[in-house]
Amino acid sequence: MPGLNQVDVKRIERILNIVLDDARPPVGRCRLLSSGFAPYHTFQLQENIAGFKGCLGCGNCLDACPLLAREPRRRERTPQRTSLALEALVAEDCDRCDNCVLVCPQVDTTIKHYIVNTRMVEGMARLLHKAERDEEWIIYDL
What we know:
The protein has helices at 13-21, 27-34, 60-64, 66-70, 83-90, 99-103, 109-141. By secondary structure, the protein is mainly α. The protein has one domain. The protein is globular. The N and C termini lie far apart (50 Å). Residues 38-51 have low confidence and may be disordered.
């Protein structure tokens, strides 16, 4: 379980921004990064991290994804409700809204607060710009 207490995000801010700037859903990588915050978890790169801090399969990330809400047919590709399924279904079409990270019970509150406090405004601006572009294409196609 991720730690509930906030820690200094400056320790991981550089790597966190790399993870959040990637074009794929970041929830799985944020979940792994969360392992290093609580005093009872470690995140040592020498270890085999496969399966460490595993996905609960709650499906919150799939339910919160705006791309899957807009294109529900993508969900038909798999019955799984995991972050790995989200990455497979969305891939590089990710809106980078970070909703998946915010709703994941396995992601540390430090990461969630960082997203809300530093990235939500730019994320919303990016989504509004994308929506305007998509709307232009719809009008053009009519």
